[in-house]
């Protein structure tokens, strides 16, 4: 049979092939585009920003922060106003000391959070109750924030470190035992606490390497790479040097402190992952670490458990202190 060429059939075939190729190309382009849009793990930029903003996961934030303030006022009415002691030369370099009646008593230092740009010692006085009642001094320092330093995290980091060294060097002046200093921190304060426990204390500050005898770090950030990629980079002036220096998970060789990591299961996925990954890395490095998940707590509620001697964080901290 002679070959018959039908241009309409050929054009239809070409159209189908062309359409198929175009569809395939679009699908490939779409998958490539989706992959290109990922800035951290499986997160695109909008999602990464969301998981580093607690407002999206804690709709009751204003209510809880209101409790912080109200309960701090109640605590001060019961215990009295804290002693205000300077640990440095600038006005902000001062701490609130809630003293216990015992002499040569252990000391608990709490580092407050606030996304590195807010917060004050006054707002966290409510945490003092269980420690003072069990015979420990409670120290809550103030320090500068990142907005006051053109986005630089180092000034507040250095202030926190100098405060800890000051407490060690001056413990006897307020009836404290310099050999029983413990630490806790929440959120960005958990990050600063993580930096503190991975500090080269004897070399850089002239105090023992194990100056901090135990730490409870609540909902902290321990590797700053994803934080730098998030919207927090809009107000924090991250550099490669700062990311490396202040990512405590990268300095586990300097960790000489038993650490308890606490987080709430209602927090953002990234804040949960940060604690889990730090715990796994510390355990792999042979360090003393415990990971505790608080069922039913969001980022702000989990901090309140430090004020309860039977709460998740409070029980862990008092147990560390053998109180």
From TrEMBL:
SUPFAM superfamilies: alpha/beta-Hydrolases (SSF53474)
Domain BD-FAE-like: 96-229
InterPro entries: AB_hydrolase_fold, BD-FAE-like_dom, Carboxylesterase_B_AS, GDXG_lipolytic_enzyme
Pfam families xrefs: BD-FAE
GO MF annotations, alphabetized: hydrolase activity
Keyword Mitochondrion: no
UniProt KW keywords: Hydrolase
Annotated protein name in UniProt: Arylformamidase
